[in-house]
Design goal:
This protein has helices spanning 3-11, 15-25, 35-62, 76-79, 83-89, 93-96, 111-124, 134-143, 148-159, 176-189, 206-209, 213-224, 237-254; strands at 100-104, 129-133, 163-167, 195-199, 227-231. With 255 residues, the protein is α/β, with parallel strands linked by helices. The relative contact order is 0.13.
């Protein structure tokens, strides 16, 4: 390709097109193709390149705790969950139905990793995704408790994600103002976008931890009636995997 054309394409932020063309120029097998065939290969390569860049950007912006989580490395047997069910959920059918997911289990049961697997799959399907710990979410609310405009901006930002993962859901009891913030958030998302709730407490314990009363009723009403629960086992996978790492280290030091 002409050097000046490459320069102009870069100025127009089409450097990915330049890279695809240069790769095609080096491919000997393309010599015998027709113009239309080469153009088709070029456009398909460009589409793939841009999709990969979009997925990488969405994954980064999702701020997942485990951005490299994958279905291939998910140990379903240890979590006592069905691989088939998780694979089906990974198609993101629950997103179109705006069905919430509730992932519960004891400490170290691998709940967060499972949620991040689904988060990664959502990004692969170019769905805007966000992972947030509930303490961080409410910490932001408390920091700006006297700034209504910032509260509304933050709540709308969370509410607009196609997939929102709230980790450590209700691990700590909340006050009335925090409960009001959560109500406004779930009200915005209800029927529009699904939320993945990840926590230690079963649904039967939520009402009390939400502060009780009619506001707790309203929050739960907007979550549980269109939700799918994924209980995990009582196995402490963190303890199991950390023990294996420690054992391998000791073996390497004594060998």
């Amino acid at each position: 390709m002409n050097t000046e054309i490459k320069k102009q394409l870069s100025i127009l932020e089409l450097s990915d097109l330049v890279a695809v063309i240069e790769a095609q120029e080096k491919e000997v097998s393309f010599v015998d193709l027709t113009y239309n065939e080469r153009l088709e290969h070029l456009l398909l390569a460009l589409i793939t390149e841009r999709q990969n860049r979009l997925i990488a950007r969405l994954t980064k912006n999702a701020d997942l705790k485990y951005p490299n989580a994958s279905l291939e490395t998910l140990d379903c047997d240890a979590r006592d969950i069905s691989k088939e069910k998780i694979t089906n959920l990974a198609t993101m059918g629950f997103v179109g139905a705006a069905t919430n997911l509730i992932i519960t289990g004891s400490t170290g049961a691998g709940k967060t990793y499972l949620a991040c697997v689904l988060g990664v799959e959502a990004c692969k399907q170019t769905l805007r995704t966000c992972y947030v710990r509930m303490p961080d979410m409410l910490g932001h609310f408390q920091t700006h408790k006297d700034n209504l405009r910032e509260q509304v901006r933050y709540r709308k930002k969370l509410g607009n994600y196609k997939v929102l993962i709230i980790d450590e859901w209700l691990n700590y009891k909340i006050n009335e103002k925090e409960s009001k913030f959560i109500y406004e958030l779930v009200e915005q998302r209800c029927g529009n976008n699904p939320t993945i709730f990840v926590g230690q407490y079963d649904v039967c314990d939520w009402h009390e931890r939400l502060g009780g009363g009619t506001q707790a009723d309203s929050i739960m009403d907007r979550i549980i009636h269109n939700s799918y629960s994924i209980p995990t086992s009582d196995n402490n996978l963190r303890k199991l995997y950390d023990s294996k790492k420690a054992r391998k280290l000791m073996e390497s030091l004594t060998s």
